[in-house]
Amino acid sequence: MKFIIIIVIVLVIIAAAQLMKVYELSSRLRNKDEADVTPAETKFNAGMLLLFYIALMISSTWLFFHYGARPGLGASASEYGVDIDFLYDVNWLIILIVFYITQSLLFLFAFKYQQKKGRKAVFFAHSTKLELLWTIIPAVVLAGIIIGGLSVWNKITTPKENATVIEIYAQQFGWTVRYAGEDNTLGNSDFKVIHETTNPLGVVTTKLINAKEKAWTREIDSLTVYLDENGDLTPDATVDEIEDKIERLGRQIRRLDPLRKSQTAETNAAATDDVIVKELHLVKGVDYEFKFRSRDVIHSALFPHFRAQMNCVPGMTTRFSFKPIITTAEMRAMPDVAKQYKEISENRVAEGREPVEFDYLLLCNKICGSSHYNMQIKIVVETQEEFDVWYAKQSESKTFEMLAGLGTTVANEESIDTNVAAIDTVNVITEPVAQ
After folding, report:
1. How far is it, in rounded angstroms, from Cα 274 to Cα 285?
2. 324: DSSP letter
3. pTM over 0.85
4. Please, is 376 exposed, middle or buried when counting C-beta atoms within 10 Å of its C-beta (0-12, 13-18, 19+)?
5. What is the spatial distance between Cα 284 and Cα 282, in angstroms, rounded to a whole number?
6. Which residues are within 8 A (CB) of 75 and not within 5 positions of it... i.e. 6 or more apart?
7. For residue 84, which of 380, 304, 280 has the smallest C-alpha distance?
8. Cα distance between residue 355 and residue 350, in whole Å
9. Strand runs labelled E in 180-287
10. Which of the 8 DSSP states describes residue 255?
């Protein structure tokens, strides 16, 4: 049906263009100059402009009231989001006032001052009063908008005392969440110790540094022994590749020294209870401070229902705060949201797909690559009791130390898990040697 509508619109445009050509040709046959406009034509054009103005005002007003200022978003789900919605509404009000005044003047003047015999336009080069008018009024309005925006921005970016700390880590093309644990302090992190499976955020502890160093040293030793025993029988290209790897592993070991020196008992303890997950759970009524990092390119963490957004920039940490005020269950129960998702689900079922229900989402709002569209995770806002049940399950298996296989003891740095020591071990590259 949509395709047929598009075809009809295209055909109507083509037909209108052909009619214009017919009119031009008929004017030439009547020896009429196209620039000559009769009073009747002027009156007709002015009348059509007036009709277009009326249609524009009716249609734009209907669209605004039908879809609203924030279609599909519903009520703000965060405390600061209410302030942002207020600023948004004020901006819309200003825009609409200017829109209706300027468009009314534009079309009504075009109708009133249509061409008439003997009428001449008045020309004047300068008006100080008019220039002051259209300079001062926009400046005052803009200053008010900026002051209001800065006030809300300062609230959002100023951490609240005792706010729960959560890290949001961005990479192409997904998000990883790190809870700060019982001490509400995030452990140190560095890209040098990132591992996709066991340490995706590059969390640092002395144990991990020792484990990395032992694993890489052992790998260097195995590669060196291999070259000593089989170097003469190994192709030169493979020998060069192994030597390059030994040199690279040596550089990686040397780069661990600054990390080791920056670690303390406090930073080690802070990292051990960090919980790393792929879903964000929040408690209604709790203040949160979010810290953002990016591994690769600039991403933008967008919380549309909470009216919050922050760029995630490689090499630096950005932050903002907000307090959720509506749980996921409460948002699902709101009449507008329930109606919207009922219609969506009915359409999906008619197409043979699974029905859906409302969920808060964290999205990337920067075009960060080919799979940017799929960079999102679910956010669940719930009661403290529900969160405690969920978090207890995560703490059983997804603390940093458990993911990294480092055990749970902080003091005994010598007892390195042999599985962790083998994390980065890569098989020696060999080629079959001709007999």
Report:
1. 22
2. B
3. no
4. middle
5. 7
6. 326, 331, 334
7. 304
8. 10
9. 275-277, 280-283
10. T
* Token pair in block for residue 309: 């957004």
Q: Supply the DSSP symbol for 419.
A: H
Of 382, 363, 377, 385, whose CA–CA distance to 324 is shortest?
Answer: 382
Q: Which residue, among 156, 158, 167, has the nearest Cα to 295 in the 3D structure?
A: 167
Output the tens digit of pLDDT for each of the chain's 435 residues.
677 888 888 888 888 888 777 766 766 666 666 566 677 778 888 888 899 999 999 999 998 888 877 777 778 899 888 889 899 889 989 999 999 999 999 988 888 888 777 777 778 788 888 889 889 999 999 999 999 999 999 888 888 888 999 999 999 999 999 999 888 999 888 888 888 888 888 888 888 888 888 888 999 999 898 888 887 778 888 888 988 999 999 998 998 888 888 888 888 888 888 899 999 999 999 999 999 999 999 999 999 999 999 999 998 999 999 999 999 999 999 998 888 888 899 898 988 899 989 999 999 999 988 889 889 999 999 999 999 999 998 888 788 777 777 764 433 433 433 343 333 433 433 333 333
C-alpha distance from residue 413 to each of 61, 211, 299 (Å):
69, 10, 37
